[in-house]
Amino acid sequence: MFFRLLLLLIVQLVAILVFSVGFFPQKAVLKGNAEFWINGDEQRAMDPQFEKLVVIVIDALRSDFLFEENMSNFNFTHGLLNQGYAWGYTAYSNPPTVTLPRLKGITTGTTPNFLDAILNVAEDDSSSNLKDQDSWLKQLHIRNKRIDFFGDDTWLKLFPEEFFQRRDGTNSFFVSDFEEVDFNVTRHLPEELNTQSDWDALILHYLGLDHIGHKGGSRSQFMAPKHREMDEVIKTVFEASDEKTLVCIMGDHGMNDLGNHGGSSSGETSAGLVFASKKLVNFRKPTVQENIKVPYRNYEDNHQYLKLVNQIDFVPTIASLFNFPIPKNSIGIIIDDFLQLFNRDAASLKVQENYQQLLHISKTPDSASHDIATLFASMKEMQDSLSQSATNYNYVLIAIGYLTLLIVTLVALRIAVVKRPHFAHLAAVVVVSILLSMSTFGSSFVEEEHQFWWWIACGLVIISGFSTKNHWKSLAIVSVCLRLIRGWNNSGQKYVYERTMFSMLTARPELLWSLNAITIFVTCFDLNVRSIYSLASSFLLAGLCLTSKANLTLVSGEGLPAWLQSVVHRSCLLLVGDLPNLNKLASVPFARLFHKYLMLLLLAHFTFQRMFTGSKRSVQDINRIITAFLIFQTVPGNIPLFLVFEGMRPHLLEIMTALGSIDEFALSLTSLILQHLTFFQLGNTNSIATVNLANAYNGVSENYNIYVVGMLMCISNFAPSIYWSLWQLTTAERLGVLRISKMEHLSMLKLPEFVVYCIFGCFLLGSCIILRYHLFIWSVFSPKLCYYVTWNLFMNLIINWGLGGLVLWFS
Question: CA 561, CA 510: separation in Å to the nearest integer?
Answer without folding.
Answer: 5
